[in-house]
Design goal:
By secondary structure, the protein is largely without helices or strands. It has no helices and 5 strands. The N terminus is likely disordered.
Length: about 170
């Protein structure tokens, strides 16, 4: 059982390729991924996981499935979420400092009151994402797909999807 993480009835998440694996022929049934600082959980299936308030600094979640996960209040500073599926995830009040979210799917994600400092979201899907009171400083949204209301995004020296810099001297 992974303390503080809810994975439904099975109690643990099974995943091939987590930190410490030396057997490259590992299967989904014989390894575990424990979301923790600096853990290697690329490709993990954490859909619907309760990771609220967790310290996940430096975690590698490239290509991971975090659809519908609760990441509210989590610290994802310097995390790698390139290509991850975060659709419908609760990321409110999340620290996304120097976090890589390029090509990530954040469709319908709630980023209310989150901090995007130095984060990269190049070519990310942000359709219908919520940005109420979200701070973006030195962030890069180049090529991101945004159709929802981004009026709540408080941008400072941030590259917007069209390539223009929002508030370059704030």
């Amino acid at each position: 059982m992974i303390r503080g993480v809810t994975f439904g009835v099975i109690g643990v998440l099974l995943f091939a390729g987590c930190a410490g694996d030396t057997d490259t022929s590992a299967t989904l049934s014989d390894t575990q991924c424990t979301p923790a600082p600096d853990a290697r959980c690329d490709g993990a299936d954490l859909a619907g996981a309760d990771l609220a308030g967790r310290d996940l600094v430096g975690i590698d979640l490239r290509g991971a499935n975090l659809a519908g996960a609760d990441l509210s209040g989590a610290d994802l500073t310097q995390a790698n979420l390139v290509g991850a599926d975060l659709s419908g995830a609760d990321m409110s009040m999340t620290a996304l400092v120097r976090t890589a979210l390029d090509r990530a799917n954040l469709a319908g994600a709630d980023l209310t009151r989150s901090r995007l400092t130095g984060a990269t979201l190049r070519d990310a899907n942000l359709m219908d994402a919520e940005f109420a009171s979200t701070f973006a400083t030195d962030a890069n949204f180049t090529g991101a797909k945004i159709d929802g209301d981004i009026d709540g995004l408080l941008a400072c020296n941030t590259t917007m999807p069209d390539g223009r810099t929002e508030n370059p001297t704030c």
